[in-house]
Records
---
Amino acid sequence: MNEPIKKIAVLTSGGDAPGMNAAIRAVVRACTYYRVECVGVYRGYQGLIEGDFEALSGRNVSNIINKGGTILKSARSEEFKTTEGRKKAYENLKKEGVGALVIIGGDGTFTGGLKFIHEFNFPVIGIPGTIDNDIYGTDRTIGYDTALNTVVEVIDKIRDTASSHNRLFFIEVMGRDAGFIALNSGIGAGAEEILIPEKNLGLERLVESLKASKEKGKTSSIVVVSEGDKIGKNVFELGDHIKEIFPDYDIRVSVLGHMQRGGSPSCRDRVLASRLGVAAVEHLLDRTSGVMVGITNNQVTTVGLNKAIKMNHDIDQELLKVAEITSV
Ligand code: F6P
């Protein structure tokens, strides 16, 4: 940790998220600005193990701030979960003369990073990049805002057809273990019901709510379901179950899937990614390691990687109330 850092490596790992390219660009350009070399690692930790590196200078990252996905590609590496895999990765970094690593991803990425730090005492800083927003220590993760805008745009379109045909739509959105996308897009798109893993509403409550909507004369409804919802049924089974209870309902199911992860990042995500990319390099050059850079009350902050992955980023109770009140 005491040698001066002359070269920083950057990688993206886990599910891609819009804005990852803006973060890569900021890391590379901050390295140029502070006169350290930068190297991109392809395919996340797998590329680290295979030595799939490319030197990056400021000009290599021109015209990527607006692009979705990640130019460095991403992967979920099984080999990096083994001690041998991580040892190969460390040896490759040493051979390349890399003194510190920036990892952009979610909880799986940070878990791998933590092990790496503990085993090799190698400086690592995390940047939260996931559409799920399920990371503690940051108000927002890179990609979340863009995904929300994508989902709201699609639900608006579904609402047109739902109301034209008096239909009930169940729309499944991403969020493996977290309901942030469902709750916020549901409020933004005016959904009648929102089902999230953090709050098990149970089938009965959903049925009661649909009955109430019917009595109030609603002719079409949108129910947003987080993929991690714990109501006990997948979204298709849920649709079938509700059909049994309301045989006269015309029910349709839409699973939005990976379209939510694509597309050009929103301005909010680009600015967030740029700020966090610069901060990551500055913290590494200041000899900080083992933390994630995040945004709290619009200030760049840091939190231990161990906390970022272990602590819950709580669902805002006020949002739950707003969802309930605005769907009466
Ligand atoms: O973690 C981001 C995420 O998009 C989750 O919302 C989703 O459950 C998962 O990745 C899907 O992963 P994959 O692309 O490997 O199918």
---
Amino acid sequence: MPDTPESQRSETAPGVMLITGASRGIGAATARLAAQRGYDVCVNYAHDAAAAEAVVADVQSAGRRAFAYRADIADEIQVEALFAAVDRTLGPLSALVNNAGLTGPISRLDAVSAEVVHRVMAVNVTGLILCARAAVRRMSTRHGGAGGGIVNVSSAAATLGSPGEYTWYAASKGAVDSFTIGLAREVGGEGIRVNAVAPGAIATDIHTASGDGTRLERIGRAAPLGRYGEAEEVAEPILWLLSDEARYVTGAILRISGGR
Ligand code: NAP
């Protein structure tokens, strides 16, 4: 096949992006970069309204529209309300960044509670799938949509397994990888590209929340690139995967782990 001539390439206009868990960390960095790239952004969060409003203010300072919306993505009713709010406030969705996630406290498997396992699966797997479903119902040409892009935030843990730390979390991200491949193949002919990023150790609050404040530094130093990553270093590949530059990329799981 010859290359598509530059003149015949359709540049995808950035449009409207929903980022789950965008009040902090990788989600917040993605929201700020998305605004610079011309997206209007819905900043979803679970608890911290003040942090979410600060991200909204940054998006607005970049000249784009934004609003914050509290919704626990593990809850179907709240997910449907979140997507309806995006429809009403910003218009047709063109990009979903399925980012919200948690690990639970670090422990061996023999010490974890069923509640932690249920919660991690409910948010990282069920919630992510319910958000993707809501996005497909809006974006798919089969449903009258104009197409779009989905990026799921997986983890290097999916293939490392996280022994002694959070094997259940690693398993939840393995599910994200399988889902990314399947959904990409299911909706590839309907104008939707579905990809994942699999970060390694990235400087966010998630490590302190897991109960080991030293983990980030330690794991980062052991990576082939010799350091941990910054949230912006994940946001940039996410924006690339959603851009027209990645128009032939779907079903990919892009590792962003400094070689780990
Ligand atoms: P973070 O700093 O802990 O931020 C988590 C975000 O998710 C917050 O905005 C939080 O909102 C939101 N959130 C949590 N539960 C939610 C729920 N049920 N519904 C809606 N929002 C919810 O985490 P992060 O490190 O940026 O992680 C983002 C994603 O990257 C996760 O999927 C994580 O597994 C993945 N990841 C991170 C790393 C890393 O090293 N940081 C590595 C690999 C993968 P509130 O603040 O309002 O609670």
